[in-house]
Write a structure and sequence with these properties.
The chain has 368 residues and is α/β, with parallel strands linked by helices. The protein has helices at 139-152, 169-175, 195-202, 217-224, 257-260, 283-286, 291-297, 314-320, 325-346, and strands at 34-42, 45-50, 58-64, 78-83, 93-98, 104-107, 117-121, 125-131, 155-161, 181-184, 186-188, 191-193, 206-210, 250-254, 265-269. The chain has a 6-stranded mixed β-sheet with strand order 10-9-8-13-15-14.
């Protein structure tokens, strides 16, 4: 006897383990969310400031909502907060969105590492803290940080510490021509000398401090933010390197009301780093950080690498066509500075190698 065809009444739908409700990619709007500033990250918990700078400013502890997935939340981020945002002891809010970032500072473990690590968001400038001695400055590390700052759309500020031990002039001459502002501090009997200059360079901006361990970064932060109590260490007499003393990045408000105007001043202290990988930086984008050279580079042949051995590079022609010897020397210094940074990105320079003595007309770090 032929079997009757099945109809809809014979079909039974087996419910899924989580019920039969269809999945949806629609996310809640969280219209009642509150914007907050992320100031610290510690093992999956985030310290944020709700109504930062407003009349109801308060610290809140938060966790990341599942809907954010693996997206990383970092100091400097502005986020949307829901749940208990009162900041009362024992409460926990949820971060449900990251507000669009204006700048993102990244680094990789090395130049071949495909994994980018977001360090800080929405900072205006990268402050590269470098000791003039004990430990000795590493210009190649400085170059890499400058490249990362320019790639992130940030300004670069070189903060030279321990000027009581060595002359800062050679490093100042090396970096000011490429648009890097330089501030110098030294240790005095009553604290840090030159702190007023640092205040002026930071006022009204968000700055992230990066540097090797032992260069005086945490000491500088403690002077800028009394009560910060960032741990400080000493330099190893054998290796010449500092011990890691800051274990997490944290944003701290600097009080300089006579300088900052309407905008607050923040510094974001980061753990000491041994290297600064630049795998995420496209070398072809580096030239755009040098507005004058970028205009010249438009005349280069297609695919020009802009290196010293590149055939028919317009940068070399620009130097040669300078109207006089003084202009030619200035242009040559500018091009050489760019090519030094380009070499840092392409791996021609080892960030861990000590500074190399240069010719007299190309100053390098003291004590090289």
């Amino acid at each position: 006897m032929p079997r009757r065809p099945l109809d809809e009444s014979d079909v039974r739908i087996r419910p899924g383990r989580r019920g039969s409700r269809p999945r949806t990619k629609t996310r809640p709007e969280h219209a009642d969310s509150e914007v907050a500033l992320v100031t610290g990250v510690d093992r999956g918990r985030y310290t944020v400031l709700a109504d930062a700078g407003g009349p109801d400013e308060r610290p809140v502890t938060a966790m990341k909502a599942r809907e954010l997935g693996r997206e990383r939340v970092v100091p400097g981020d502005r986020v949307d907060l829901v749940g208990d945002t009162s900041g009362a002891e024992g409460t926990l809010a949820r971060i449900v969105r990251i507000v669009e970032r204006t700048t993102v500072l990244r680094r990789t473990a090395d130049d071949s590492d495909p994994v980018e690590r977001v360090i800080v968001a929405n900072a205006h400038q990268l402050v590269i803290v470098t000791a003039l001695a004990d430990p000795e400055p590493r210009t190649r590390m400085i170059d890499r940080c400058v490249v990362a700052a320019y790639d992130a759309g940030m300004d670069a500020l070189l903060a030279l510490t321990k000027a009581d031990l060595a002359d800062p002039a050679p490093l100042v001459a090396l970096y000011e021509p490429i648009g890097v502002r330089v501030v110098v501090t030294s240790r005095g009997p009553d604290g840090i000398v030159g702190l007023d200059e640092v205040h002026r360079a930071l006022a009204g901006r968000t700055s992230v401090l990066v540097g090797h361990s032992g260069v005086g970064k945490s000491t500088l932060v403690n002077a800028l933010v009394p009560g910060a109590y960032r741990a400080t260490g000493v330099v190893n007499d054998v290796t010449g390197r500092g011990r890691h003393t800051s274990s997490s990045a944290i944003a701290l408000r600097v009080q300089v009301p006579e300088l900052e105007g309407d905008a607050p001043t923040w510094v974001i202290d980061t753990p000491g780093v041994r290297s600064f990988g630049l795998a995420h930086v496209d070398p072809t984008r580096l030239l755009s950080a040098f507005a004058d050279l970028a205009a010249v580079g438009e005349e280069c042949p297609r695919g020009c690498t802009h290196t010293a051995d590149a055939p028919d590079c317009a940068l070399d022609e620009w130097v040669a066509d300078a109207p006089d010897a003084e202009a030619r020397a200035a242009r040559a210094a500018r091009v050489e500075s760019f090519r030094r940074l380009l070499a840092s990105r392409t791996g021609a320079a080892d960030p861990e190698a000590p500074p190399v003595s240069a010719a007299p007309d190309t100053p390098t770090a003291p004590g090289a």
